[in-house]
Amino acid sequence: MWWLTSYRLDLKSQASYRLDFAIQIAIWMVYASLPLVAVGVLVSKFPNSGMSVAEVALVYCAVQLGYEGSRMFGRALDDFHTETSKGNLDRLLIHPKPLLPLVVASRIFPRRIAGIAAGLMGGAMGLTGTSQPTTALVMLLIATASSVLIFSGLLTIYAAICFWTITRNLFADIVTGSLVTLSLAPIENFAWPLRMLVTHLIPIYPGIQRPIRSLSSSGGAINLVDFFFPIAAGAGFYAVSVAMFYVGRRVYQSPGS
């Protein structure tokens, strides 16, 4: 497949500097673990906050796999402003393949595998801390699938905004970056505007938190709503982001034109 070839070539060029690659992986793993440590300490200090430490660890796993995975394979969307501001996008626009998958497949950021590894360690901690590990694993997979769709959607929205701004905008830093940490905290502690944001506009709560937290509220039984709704919420959000991307494509004008 053409996109696998593109990924392989980019990965080969980045991995050629092995020592630098290994050092950056270690640094990324420490950095990615900080939100889990911070929120875990807060939850352990305030046991009535709405979530247990095990639930925080499971949510952290789902968030990390979605966030780091999307930024690893969607690196080109993360840096889409470089394509629009320098006019590099023009060479992709004349390609016969669909624009979005063509952009996504053009770059990969393997250092994000450190964050994925940190997320898997958090997931292992969460599964060992629950009395229903099998059910917890199923709900974790559901939350992870939704997380991948949500954070891929956020990257796609950032790229869509770049069609208008041309240069880098703050959406990725302010919205996407903040949601990584906020998604680990119990939603009950948020002010109502923030609760509305992560519930109805960006489905962090229904897509990621709810399936994990249903373990304690449902007594271990999985109902159809908890099984299908999180993925549907993530898929709907991603579909909207793709639509925004192609709307932005229609208004884009190359800096060289």
From TrEMBL:
<dbReference type="InterPro" id="IPR010390">
    <property type="entry name" value="ABC-2_transporter-like"/>
</dbReference>
<feature type="transmembrane region" description="Helical">
    <location>
        <begin position="21"/>
        <end position="43"/>
    </location>
</feature>
<keyword id="KW-1133">Transmembrane helix</keyword>
<dbReference type="Pfam" id="PF06182">
    <property type="entry name" value="ABC2_membrane_6"/>
</dbReference>
<feature type="transmembrane region" description="Helical">
    <location>
        <begin position="170"/>
        <end position="187"/>
    </location>
</feature>
<keyword id="KW-0812">Transmembrane</keyword>
<keyword id="KW-0472">Membrane</keyword>
<feature type="transmembrane region" description="Helical">
    <location>
        <begin position="227"/>
        <end position="247"/>
    </location>
</feature>
<feature type="transmembrane region" description="Helical">
    <location>
        <begin position="136"/>
        <end position="163"/>
    </location>
</feature>
<protein>
    <recommendedName>
        <fullName>ABC transporter permease protein</fullName>
    </recommendedName>
</protein>
